[in-house]
Amino acid sequence: MKLSLTKNPSKYGVLLVNLGTPDEPSPKAVKKYLKAFLSDTRVVEIPPFIWYFILNGAVLPLRCKKVAKAYASIWTEQGSPLRVIGEQQVESLKHLINEQHSVGLTIELAMTYGEPSISSKLDFMRQKGIENILILPLYPQYSATTTAAVFDKLNQAFSKVRNLPQVRFIKDYYQNPLYITALSNSIKDFWQQKSKADKLIFSFHGLPKSCIEKGDPYFEHCEYTAKETAKVLKLTDDEWMMTFQSRFGKQEWLQPYTDKTLEKLPSQGIKSVQLICPAFSADCLETLEEISIENRDVFIEAGGQIFDYIPALNNRVDHIQVFEDILIKNLNNW
Ligand SMILES: C=CC1=C(C)c2cc3[nH]c(cc4nc(cc5[nH]c(cc1n2)c(C)c5CCC(=O)O)C(CCC(=O)O)=C4C)c(C)c3C=C
Ligand SMILES: [Fe+2]
Ligand SMILES: [Fe+2]
User: Pfam families of this UniProt entry (predicted)?
Assistant: First the structure.
């Protein structure tokens, strides 16, 4: 489909938004980042006056050093992988739109927490005279803890603006056939280099179980993603499974847990596994360190033999085409 706009292309902006990441892998920068992230009531639903003391008195002092060390193990010369890959995704999308549709749209990357902030990018677009803004949170599966947090930041930024732009907000894209195709292609590509493992594990970022009980549709979105991808790959039920990683705090989170599963699988005769993390549009701490380093160790120490991590869709052409498809469908005739 060709992109057809009703106004001059200079009037449109597209903002891709990911979570955010520290500026450097130091305890001080990690503290600043975690403080902003974990103070958001969308992320932690404990009453703020109680959470304030737990966060500042226990969580931050105990966590910052350890997490800074984990960031240091995945840091690149250009910076944190989440931000570096996000910038590459924006450049590739600009290139694709320019090449395929001969339109030079304003496309920017922002982060919910830290830099570049959503409000700075909205200011930039306002100064450019942009009237229509498409917001694309880089979370295929909706959750109030991530996607709705983007919506809140937009509202906070707009609360200071008199003359608002027109805004469209993408809630999710897990059902987009191009997204499922890109995921399955990335797995097929991996199987070209290495043969299939005993089990393919779709490991999603977890959520407290209470979020689902209160109506967050994230679990359903994850289930659809894994099932549809397994269907495209023609996998039988015993060849794949779905797990949840990145538990935080003492509450019960979505199960089965990725680390606990990896601990058990070798005793059930599963000696080789391949993990893919479809909730992450870009590789980051949770995939490069928690999965590829920590969870690999868990599996091998439990008697597993081969552990492979299949990279996030990152800057793959078929991933950028998912964004292109979302852009065209939402900007056409707007
Ligand atoms: C406190 C609860 C958390 C919820 C709920 C949560 C949901 C959630 N997060 C992502 C994506 C990412 N999370 C990342 C890091 C991260 N997540 C939490 C906590 C919750 N996440 C913490 C405390 C951290 C920081 C690291 C740590 O201290 O362990 C990241 C990586 C950022 C990076 O810099 O690389 C991403 C991405 C999703 C998709 C999600 C719910 C669906
Ligand atoms: Fe997280
Ligand atoms: Fe983690």
Answer: Ferrochelatase
- Distance (angstroms) between ligand 2 centre and the Cα of 12 equals 31
What tokens does 172 get?
Answer: 């999710």
Is residue 7 over pLDDT 90? yes
Measured CA to CA, the distance from residue 152 to residue 144 in angstroms comes to 10
Q: pLDDT tens, 259-305? A: 999 999 999 999 999 999 999 999 999 999 999 999 999 999 999 99
- What residue type is 138 in one-letter code? L
How many residues are there in the chain?
Answer: 334
Peptide bond into 256 cis (omega under 30): yes
Of ligand 1's listed atoms, the one at least distance from the Cα of 21 is 34
Atom 19 in ligand 1: residue holding the nearest Cα: 248
pTM of the complete model: 0.97
Confidence of residue 209 (pLDDT cuts 50, 70, 90): very high
| Predicted-complex ipTM score | 0.97
In this structure, are residues 280 and 205 in contact, taking their beta carbons and an 8 Å threshold?
yes
95 — pLDDT class (breaks 50, 70, 90)? very high
* 139 vs 283: CA distance, rounded Å: 13
Q: Is 187 exposed, middle or buried (0-12, 13-18, 19+ CB in 10 A)?
A: buried
| 38 Cα to the center of ligand 1, angstroms | 9
